[in-house]
Amino acid sequence: MTLPPDHPAIPTPKVGVLLINLGTPDAPDAGAVRRYLAEFLSDRRVVEIPQLLWQPILRGVILTTRPKKSAHAYQQVWTPDGSPLAVHTRATAHALQQAMGQGVVVDWAMRYGNPAIAEKLAAMKAQGCERILLAPLYPQYCAATTATANDAAFAALAAMRWQPAIRTLPPYHDDPAYIAALKASIDRHVAALDFVPDALLASFHGMPERTLHLGDPYHCQSVKTVRLLREALALPVHMSFQSRFGRAKWLEPETEATLARLVKDGVRNIAVVTPGFAADCLETLEEIALRAKAVFLDQGGEKFALLPCLNASAEAITLYQRLMGRELSGWID
Ligand SMILES: C=CC1=C(C)c2cc3[nH]c(cc4nc(cc5[nH]c(cc1n2)c(C)c5CCC(=O)O)C(CCC(=O)O)=C4C)c(C)c3C=C
Ligand SMILES: [Fe+2]
Ligand SMILES: [Fe+2]
C-alpha cells in the first residue's frame, strides 16, 4: 500500500528475536548440576513417566548420583567464560544482532537455568518489543526440545496483561539454507584437518524410541537432514544417535556402537559432525570429542576429529538471518 505524501508515517513496532537453547548449569560443580538436572528432568516433555512414579526415582536415585559424575564431565569442557553451550549461544545472539541491525532486538535465553525465558521476554517487552519471534535453535523438531521451549515462553506470556504478538520458528531440518550452512562449515573444517577422513558420521542426540511411534517427527527429520547432507557432500555420511539416558529403548544405531562397527568395516579415519546441535556443548565436546574418540581409537581406528557445530560462525549467521528474516516478513521492512 502506498501512503499519500501528506500522510504521517506509521511507526513500526519494535520487533524482538529470542534465540532459545536447552540450558546448562551455572557452574561445573555438583550443586549447580543438581539444580539444573532437577529442573530439566522434572519437565514432563522430557521424561514422560507419571510424576508420582518418576519424582521418587529422580530425587532418590538420579539426583543423588548423577550430579557428581556430570559435574566431572562439565569440568573437562568448561571455559573461562562459562559453559560452552552458553558461551556459543550468547556469541550467536551478539553476532546476529550485528547482522540484523538496530531495527530488531536480538537476545538469547535458556529453557532450563539461566538466563530464563520469562526474564528475557520481560526485558524485551520493557524495551518496547510489541512483536517477538521465539526461535528455539533446534533444526529438527522434538517435543522434548522445541515444544517445551515454546511452552515455557507461553507460560511466561500467560502472566502478562498486555502480551506481545508472537511467532515461533519452525523446524529447519530440510531448509536449503541449513544444508548449505552445514556443507560450507563441514567442507571448511575437513579441509583444515591433518588427515583425509574415509567417512563422516552424523551423530544426533538420541530420544526414547517410543516417541517416534507416538508421532514425534524428530527421528524422521534427522534422517532427512542426513539424506540431504549425503546429496550435498562428497564423503560417505553415516548416521547415529548419542547420549542415551535411562533404561528405555532409545533410537538406534547408537553412536559408540556405530563407531566400533565402522572400524570393523574398514573405516580408519573419521570426522564426526553433530548437525542437531546448534552449539557445542557437553554432549559434543565431552561425549564425542573425548569419550567416543577413545572408543574409536580403542577399536583400532587411527584418526578421529569432531567438527565444530555451526556455533556463531559466518555460516550460522547467514543461515539465521535467512530463517529469521523469513519469519519476520510483514513485521520488518
Ligand atoms: C539437541 C537435541 C536434544 C534432545 C532431543 C535431547 C533429549 C534429551 N536429553 C535428555 C537428557 C540429558 N541431556 C543432557 C544434555 C543435553 N541435551 C541436549 C540436547 C538435547 N537433548 C544438549 C544441548 C545438552 C547439553 C547441555 C550442556 O550443558 O552442555 C543432560 C545433562 C548432562 C548429563 O548429565 O548427561 C541430560 C541428563 C533426555 C532424557 C532427553 C529426551 C527424553
Ligand atoms: Fe539431552
Ligand atoms: Fe551425555
Structure description:
The strands form 2 sheets. Strands 2-1-3-4 form a 4-stranded parallel sheet, with helices on both faces. It has a 4-stranded parallel sheet with strand order 6-5-7-8, sandwiched between helices. The chain has helices at residues 30-40, 51-77, 84-100, 117-126, 143-157, 176-191, 209-213, 218-232, 255-264, 282-285, 287-298, 314-327, and strands spanning 14-23, 104-112, 129-136, 165-168, 199-205, 237-242, 269-273, 303-306. The protein is α/β, with parallel strands linked by helices. Helix 6 (176-191) runs antiparallel to helix 12 (314-327). The mean pLDDT is 96. The chain folds into 2 domains: 14-172, Rossmann fold, CATH 3.40.50; 176-306, Rossmann fold. Strand 3 (129-136), helix 5 (143-157) and strand 4 (165-168) form a beta-alpha-beta unit. The protein is globular and about 75 Å long. It is built from 12 helices and 8 strands. The longest helix has 27 residues, at 51-77. The structure holds the ligand C=CC1=C(C)c2cc3[nH]c(cc4nc(cc5[nH]c(cc1n2)c(C)c5CCC(=O)O)C(CCC(=O)O)=C4C)c(C)c3C=C and fe (ii) ion (FE2) (2 copies). Residues 205, 243 line the site of one fe (ii) ion.
